[in-house]
Amino acid sequence: MAMAVAAISGTALLTSVGTAIQTSSEALNSSVALGLAEQLMDEVSSTRFPAAASTAFLAGSARAAFDDMDDFSGYSHSPPVDRNGYIIGTEGPGSLPPSLRAVWMQPDSSYLAGFAQQVLVERLLPSGSNGWTVVSQHTNYRRVTVTINLTDGSAQTKTLAQVVRVFAYAPPASSGIGFQPVIRRMGSRPVRPILHFSCSISHFTFEFFRGCCGK
Q: In this structure, is residue 101 part of a structural domain?
C-alpha cells in the first residue's frame, strides 16, 4: 500500500515539475518574441511615410537600404536579424559585426533558428465608424503588422507575438507656414518626416506624420 502511494505521489510530482518547466519555457519564448516584434516595429516607424511614387525594394534586399515603410511590406526572415543583416543577439555594439561580441554573450544559434520575422504593410482608407478598408492605391494611411512565429522541433509553427500600428500622414500647410520636419537618424542615415503624435488604443497605435515624405 505504501509503495503504491509513493508511486502515485512521485508521478504527480514529476508531472507538476514537467508542466512548470514547459510553462516557463513558453513564457520565455513569448517574451523574446514580443521583444523582437516591438524592436522591428520601432525600426519601421522610424522610416519616412511613403510618397505616391515610392518604389518597394525587391525581396531579399537588406533592411539597411529601406527608406520608407512600404519597403518593409512582405519582409520575412529566419532567424531574426537586425537592419544590417546580423542575427539578433550576435551583433556587436551599435550593430557592428558579430566578431566584436564575445561568444559567451551570444545566444544559442539553434534556439534562434526557430524564430521568424514577418512584416505586412497595408494601404488603408477610413471606412465608416472606426473601420478601415484595405486598398491598392496610395493613401495617407498605412497599417503595419509585425509577426513573430516560432517553429519547434516537430516542425509545428505558431504565432507568439504580433504588433499592429496604424500610421497617418498629414501634409504640410499649403501656405508654407507650419511645422518644420524633424530630422531623426538611424545610424548615419537621416530619416524624415517626423513630427508625429501617437496614442495607444488597446494593442494598436495610431501615429500621425507631419512634414515631408517620399524618397
A: no
On whether residue 106 sits in a domain, the answer given is: no
Task: Indicate whether 88 belongs to any domain.
Answer: no
Write the CA distances from 186 to 83, 84, 95, 117, 142, integer angstroms. Answer: 10, 11, 11, 20, 21
- Quote the cell numbers at residue 142: 498605412
- CA distance linking residue 148 with residue 76, whole number of Å: 10
Cell numbers linked to 12 = 504527480
Does 91 map to a domain?
A: no
C-alpha cell at 47: 522610416
Show the CA angle centred on residue 78, arms to residues 70 and 51, nearest 5°.
5
Q: How many other CB atoms are found less than 10 A from the CB of residue 54?
A: 17
Q: Say what the alpha-carbon torsion angle 64, 68, 74, 80 is, to the nearest 10 degrees.
A: 30
Number of separate domains in the chain? 1
| CB within 8 Å of 100: residues ≥ 6 apart | 92, 93
Predicted confidence at residue 186, as pLDDT, reads 39
Mean predicted confidence (pLDDT) in 79-98: 78
Which of the two residues, 92 and 183, has the higher pLDDT score?
92
Residue 33 is inside which H or E element, if any? helix 2-45
Report field, pTM of the whole predicted structure over 0.85:
no
Range of the domain at 130: 2-78+114-210
Does residue 79 contact residue 88 with C-beta atoms inside 8 Å? yes
For residue 170, list its beta bridge partners.
210
- Can you tell me the distance from the alpha carbon of 106 to that of 90, in angstroms, rounded to the nearest whole number? 5
